[in-house]
Write a structure and sequence with these properties.
elongated; 2 strands; two-stranded antiparallel ribbon
Length: 246
């Protein structure tokens, strides 16, 4: 049977609250440091042009049924024909993502800065928490939980008799590390509240080939089934008016 523990108020004052405050301050400080280290490169005209082409083709797909079939067909040929279409990319012109990364040293430098601004504070903070606060039972969740949550909430405490609702200091650190995005959105703004999971996802997509977006949009535009809906709107409006008059 799980044991009920009486948590000392000193643990709240000297472990729980300082750890939470430090995690918030480190997150804010890391944001401003990464903002200072962030470079502002001049956007490539080719990349901007390709992005605008993809956006226009996407708008054409979404509003395809509001233009006549002849107009849609001419626009689709204008974007997707294999001679001079805006979305067509010849096989020899597809840029290698790895070559693009090494050809621009600023991209590699920005990636290294992002890695340093994320890994170094996490390493130092985890070492600080593991040295000073290891083994503490910091808090208790006010509702029962199943045994599946024990490894997540009681990291660093190897006692199977302790109830699952108790949270260790190390687990509290991880909960603050990945769960403060809502607070950062209030402090720094919604666009600046980027958690570490999103940073890892962005870094995993580093060096993607921008020409793949053109090819994917061309394929999406080729499979669009056009059906002009405006004549149906006229008949529908006429039927509604007839009901109102009668």
């Amino acid at each position: 049977m799980a044991e009920d523990l009486v948590l000392d108020t000193a643990i709240r004052d000297w472990v729980l609250i300082p750890l939470s405050v430090v995690m918030v301050l480190i997150g804010v400080l890391r944001y401003f440091v990464s903002k200072l280290m962030r470079s502002s490169p001049v956007p490539d005209a080719k990349v901007v042009r390709e992005g605008q082409i993809v956006l226009r083709a996407r708008n054409l797909r979404s509003a395809a049924n509001f233009i006549p079939h002849k107009s849609f067909r001419s626009r689709r040929i204008y974007y997707g024909n294999e001679e001079n279409g805006l979305l067509y990319v010849p096989k020899g012109q597809a840029q290698n993502a790895q070559a693009q990364m090494f050809s621009d040293p600023n991209m590699a430098m920005d990636m290294m800065k992002k890695n340093l601004s994320m890994i170094i504070p996490q390493t130092l903070t985890f070492a600080w928490v593991n040295f000073f606060f290891s083994g503490f039972v910091a808090a208790k969740i006010p509702f029962p939980l199943t045994q599946r949550f024990r490894s997540m909430l009681q990291n660093g405490i190897d006692l199977s008799t302790v109830d699952v609702s108790y949270v260790s200091s190390r687990s509290w650190y991880f909960l603050n590390l990945f769960g403060l995005r809502g607070l950062f959105s209030l402090i720094l703004g919604e666009e600046n509240a980027m958690d570490d999971t999103q940073r890892m996802m962005q870094m995993s997509g580093f060096g993607m080939d921008p020409t793949k977006g053109l090819s994917a949009e061309k394929d999406n535009l080729d499979i669009v089934q056009h059906e002009w809906v405006l004549p149906k709107f006229e008949h529908r409006a006429e039927a509604v008016l007839r009901k109102i008059v009668s």
